[in-house]
Amino acid sequence: MTLCVVQATPTIPQERYHEDLTIRPLTDGKVVTAFTFTTLLGGASPRDPRDAESSAQHYTLFPLTLGQILREYSVTELHLSLNAGKWNYNSWGFPDHPSVGTGAELWAWMADGGPLSVDDRWMGLRNALAGLFCASLGSLDDRRTSSPASAFPLSSVPFPHDSTPYALRHATLPSEHVCTENLTPFLKLLPCKSRAGLARLLDPQRVFDTDWHGLGVHVRSTEAGIELRLGAQAVFDPVRRSRGKRRDWSFQSLFDRQIDVACPVASSSTIHLVVPDIRGYNLSPEPVASNDTVNVYSPTSHVPLDIAMSWPEEHIFKYPLPPPAPQTPLSVKRTLYGSSQTRGVLFVSFSNNDHSPITVGYLETLPALVTLWMHTMKVDVGGIARDDLVSDMIYHPPLLLANGHHGPSTLQTTLTIPGKSTLRLSVDVSKTFLKYTEHPPDAMRGWDLPPAVLFPVLLLLDGERTNASLAGQSIPKRIYTPTLLVDLPTPDFSMPYNVIILSCTLMTLIFGSIFNLLTRKWTIVKMHD
Amino acid sequence: MDSTSLFPLLVSFRLLLACIPLHLISGLQHDHQLSSPLTSYSRLKEGLWLYSHNIDPYAGGVFRHSPLFLSIFSTLLPPLPIVWALSDIVGAWALLRIWRARQRVGKGSGGRAGGLVAAAFLLNPYLFLPSLALSASTFENTAVLLTLMFASEGKPSAALLALAFSTHLCISTLLLLLPVLMLLVTSPVSQLASPQEFRGDLRTTCKYAGQFVAYWLVLLGASSLMVGDVYCEQSYRASLTLPDLTPNPGLWWYFFTEMFDHFRPFFLMVFSVHLVIYILPICIKFQHDALYASFLLVGILGIFKAYLTLADPGLFLSMFALFPEVYPYLRHPIVTTLVHIHAALLLPLFHALWVTEGRGNANFYYAASLVMGVAGGMGVVDACYAGLRIAFGDVAEGERNNWAVVQE
């Protein structure tokens, strides 16, 4: 019956499914794994928000639950990531999927127009995704939403027929934690679920035991159609599992599983193993293709597949000392210091590990819990103030919204970091005093501040910046700084009645005394008879 | 030492204080006792920064100062401590002139007492500490004193303009409108000992009220032209709805931090109306001495104002110098002083224990602010008592054991 429907409808788009796994063993013994499951809905395009009628949706490989959400809110481009842990750029290099900010991050590009406003659709989208992925995405409300378009540019192909304006909505929830309840709906979006193919390896017991793990959903529209990329990344530490002795690993030891069934609907399924520079390891089985840096395996031809890597010469693994040079051209540290609960200093240091200057965009999005004092912003390199290295600064104060909330404040600038030096940026911040009802139940824990984002900038070779060597290069992908924890001053939570009673008593005492004085009549009395 | 030498000495002392390098006293600028979100210096600097970068300074809820400060400090002169010192000196001079008008002494005469009046203003720690912290409350106090000075000297236009300015800077000063209007049509000379019915011309009073409204609207219009109507939203509404719950020595902040959400609008209304309630009874009872009525209302503001700083009770305490005739009738001046000292020492201590040291909690500071409220209340109640009691004179020395003046 289903087959008949498919054959009878000529407009059914061509769907293709690819799966890919990249494994990078690192010199410090860690193993970075990145799963990418790509579904291409050929010939399809996002719904124009102005089109009222909604055609029926028939998918064979593309997940219907996600397709319905995308259609309902006419989302052109969607990026959702749920991560736990701090991505260590210095040792692990750039991640395969760049969205590695701690917590939940959601951003969507939507075409404007139609009966529903972009903000209404954004609200519907995040609530629908919250339901789909069992995550607290519903709390990504207007207190956390901003639209930093240059940091998160539109990568989709816009509608060809007219110049529809597109709007970006971006929000992060750093305190969100990714766990099994998010992985289960994530795996349900795959055509083979976790029963076959590479997704067979995603055992929650093991994936959520890693040093860093994250899930990502990325939808964009390309020339070929709508592309859905589901990504899962994890950084395993085989040394820890072997109690600090060996860095040998295999699928069986990392995932507690091996690939025993290939996914029959996958048009391609590949495993890329980035081989380390240092020698002295054994690899099994033999790759189907290889070059100097990458070994390629195919689980379709080779089932069951259990790739294993071992260092037979090495009895006890020793961490490389001194630690290897940073893997990324730029290292970033962000701290919030100051012992007072009312004030502090936000301090970001950017270290250029390269010899040529690097120009990056810097985006700070802070909820209105903390206020940036922009007049105190200082930029220095080696103790010397260098305001000339800051350009294109855009600051949006926390706007008061119609519902009484304050939106986030955003600071976006372009920074040029000279070669082999450290640029330090500091801004005073003050912490807000909240009503007692606005504090979370664990108020003393503090509030998480979202990560700052460094993003590549297009270096314009015009006017002031004709000298390309002065501005240098930019970074290839976004860099997320770790999140921050800010402790806000707390009121006493057991006091509402006491405060009402005591304050009102004082007011009535003064009020009563004054009116007593003003209204009573003065007389002279005889003290005793 | 007479006032001709004491006043210049105080002025030069105040100017010397203005020369302290800013970074030495930067701790004062962030002190919650000395400046509120409506008056703080760092917010003024932030507003100026935003304004110079073409960002609406009122958008973020950070800047709530008057647009007048924006225009003055972004064009005429930078916000230097000397401006605050000059404002303090003008305030002291205005207080001295009010005192002269009340005592009916000419310029130059008045002797030592005149110098002491200036000293009561310039050496009052409640006033010069906020001034060193570069809090805008210094300008508010000076505007209030200029209003009373012009009103005492019978210069209606100048007085009403000054009142319009001080209302523009701080909406709570509107409380002083009625006594200032009364003062304009009567005399500043002390009538406390011989109360009479109000004999001012009501039509003239209404005319002055209209004049005040006109000045105020002009100021509002000028502000609106400059920054749009967001100023009223950010500054005037802040005094009524308390959006920023930064602690201060007043009673509002902790009350509304701890308030249940659904009762919040009701109690905001209660707290605002409560301020207004005092105007009529005090003005009726002290209709014979409008300057004393305004003094008492300044005292009320110094206890119950939203976003209170120490400068508000400070103005009330300094104004005590204007009324030496009531001193013999104060019932407990020493106790009031001691409670004030107690509160003034506890406030910074408990504030530090709560937010800096982390050893105390918010209740500590709240308790200190309650003590501050008690101290303020004792001062106002005592002043009110003495102002009424003076009319009944003294019982003769030998008869004190037999007769007493009391209220029924």
Would you kindly provide a written description of the structure presented here, covering whatever features stand out?
The complex is a heterodimer of chains A (529) and B (408). With 529 residues, chain A is of the alpha+beta class. Chain A has 2 domains: 15-310, no CATH class; 330-486, Immunoglobulin-like, CATH 2.60.40.740. Chain A is 16% helix and 34% strand. Chain A has an 11-stranded mixed sheet, covered by helices on one side. Chain A has a 5-stranded antiparallel sheet with strand order 15-16-22-18-19, with no helix packed on it. A 5-stranded antiparallel sheet of chain A has the order 20-21-17-24-25, with no helix packed on it. In chain A, strand 1 (15-25) and strand 2 (31-42) form a beta hairpin. In chain A, helix 2 (64-72) runs antiparallel to helix 4. Chain A is globular. Mean pLDDT of chain A is 89; it is low at 1-10 and 462-469. Chain B starts with a helix and ends with a strand. Chain B has helices at residues 3-17, 26-29, 41-52, 67-76, 81-103, 111-122, 125-132, 137-152, 156-169, 177-185, 202-227, 230-241, 252-257, 264-277, 279-285, 290-304, 311-319, 333-357, 362-389; one strand at 403-407. In chain B, helix 9 packs across helix 11 and helix 15 packs antiparallel against helix 16. Chain B has one domain (3-394). Chain B is mainly α and 408 residues long. At the A-B interface, strand 18, strand 20, helix 10 and strand 27 of A face helix 3, helix 13, helix 15, helix 18 and helix 19 of B. Strand 27 (522-526) of chain A pairs antiparallel with strand 1 (403-407) of chain B.
How would you summarize this macromolecular structure in one to three sentences?
With 529 residues, chain A is an alpha+beta fold. In chain A, 16% of the residues lie in helices and 34% in strands. Mean pLDDT of chain A is 89; it is low at 1-10 and 462-469.
